[in-house]
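Morning F.,

Quick status update on the modeling queue. The single chain you submitted on Monday has been processed. Sequence for confirmation:
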Amino acid sequence: MDFRLTEEEKMLQATARDFAKRELEPVASGVDEAEEFAMDSFRKMAELGFTGLAISPEYGGSGGNIISLVIVMEEIAKACASTCDILDAHVSLCARPIFLYGTEEQRRRFLPSLTQGEKIGAFAITEAEAGSDISAVKTTATRDGDSYVVNGSKLFITNGPVCDIAVVFANMPALGPRGMTAFIVEANTPGFSRGVQYRKLGMHGATNAELIFDNVRVPASNRLGDEGRGMRICLATLDEGRLGIAAQSVGIGQAVLERAISYSKERKQFGYPIGQNQAIEWMLVDIATKIEAARLLTYQAAFLYDEGVRISKEAAMAKLYASEACMDTAMKGIQIFGGYGYMMDSPMQRYFRDAKLTQIYEGTSEVQRMVIARALLS
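Structure tokens below.
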């Protein structure tokens, strides 16, 4: 098994790393403080083709595979986790399902504007009574001639305040308990509106909103996949999206590690750098080991996906381990920085706040354990 990146992947990694260091890291604190959608960062990612990764050039994309997307997301998250969150929702959760499950007409109609960053994508499944249990969605879609009438609301939708296109999941009552169906909904459709814009603990630059559907008439040509196939599309999309969150977790953890190492060399107490204390050394060792293990789990799952293997278990393992390693790393990072790490002008507090969300969205750690357990016991 070859764990080395190809020359093309190394070039992509170097490009993403340079971009993140030059364009994202200097503004990450400001993006966090503004609590507004990081539009400038999104536009700059589009200019480099990152918004079209893993989408065929035939539809305006940049090509590449899921490993390419994971490589870029890690580097973006290392500089600004919010910007990585935006990219994950836009590409993995919106553009990719259209690419994978859409008709040729849908691909040609929707993908070029998404891949070029002219329009912003979102993924809408979560509801007030449907968080971990996505089968409990109450949003409905009723067939009416050559259209579907959609009613309901979705909560906590990443990119929700600014999205132009959303992949939306609704139940068709006429189909019974297996009626979940996916739709491509355009934000300029009459009856579509945005409700509450949420304030979050972290990831402030990736804004979230409630999406409201009041007799929204969606053309049948905008149905994504067959009627009643929405659950399969949703679960497969979340498998892929979890790789993005795993990569995001690795990126945050790597940022913590690098800053903690630098600080441990510079900060002196009792006459010598704190990095010479075994207590600090061992925390750095634990951080480095966990982040490397998380990276390997993530890359392995991405490799298997690109080989055509179903990765529900592997994606859940990568997301579970990487997110929990990220949170542990963020706590250790603050401990190494001591009082300085607890101050709001330290990047450590931002890493800590951002890290927590990785254990919650796109399936909590508890949901990941459920997925893994079912795979082991099946």
